[in-house]
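User: Before I run my own analysis I want an independent prediction to cross-check against. Here's the chain; please return only the structure tokens and, at the end, one sentence I can use as a sanity check.
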Amino acid sequence: ELQEKYDSHITNKNSARSLKDQDKLIALNNKSIIVACFDLQKVLVTPKSEVSIFYYKSKYATYNFTVYDIGNHKGYCYVWHESVAKRGANEIGSCLWKFLDTAANNKNIQEVIFYSDNCGGQNRNRFIFSMFQLAACVFNKKITHRFFEKGHTQNEGDSMHAVIENAKNRQQVVYTPEQWVTLIRMAKVTGTPYDVTEMSQKDFYNLKKLVIGQNWKTDEDGQQLKISKVREIVLLGNPDGRVDFKYEYTDAPKSLNIYKKRRGRPSCCSRADLQQLYDKPLPVDKKKLDGLLELCNKRDIPEMYHGFYRSLSYNKAKNTTEETVNNEETSTEEQSE
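Assistant: Structure tokens:
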């Protein structure tokens, strides 16, 4: 049994690599198809400094979600910080919507193929898939999402993170999220700079609302849909709600009707289906904010940056547990639904 699992693991690793290499060749020669890898970079923290006083204080988090368009050799960054939004499926999906609405939104592009790791809380879940279904309909494009084998997620997009990390290591101090944005814009020494979008709260949508009334539980054969095992999903935005998926790359596709639960004809797809996720800045952990304000009061953070930190509000709830910003794993609240 262990040998079977290992053989399957290697087969899936090789299949994903082979498919991506094929897609890369197609994208380089066919401008009607975009092939892109996406990922969330390791958290960027402020204040960043070699001064020891900063080492013992909780840091403020800035998030950078990257999409690398392989065929056009172009990188896109979507940046926000922790009082703007969190870093779950809603946020990742909203960044992907922004990419589809801007970078990929022209009539010449007929298909977008995404590759990513298989983190369930962020990438492989019904909220992202439902957003893709809406985007496929609104933008009139075929959208395919494929997942790398666990432990073998290296891809062209990693170079973006490496370039930004190198720029970070060259920069001795960073005091605010805005400075991270500037650093990312200037990180690339040669070639086209990264296309950087500062995400505001109006750019983040509640994707959980999209799945209400949709069927993401049983396929057309009456079998339970195992989302955590899906390796490929294809969304055409069809009014009939048909979605194709595979558990193994070598399988024949299976189908799912996400509108099965609805009575009558499904409504026309519309951007209006997207509802804003947040309506006010998110509070920061009180212990964290107290530490940051202490650094301001002691002038360890220069006065010109105090306004940003003093504008933050803290979480007044008791027993709040601070998110450790160096932890790569996102909250899995999206998985528990």
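Sanity check: Strands lie at 33-40, 44-46, 60-69, 74-81, 111-116, 142-147, 195-198, 232-235, 242-246, 254-257.
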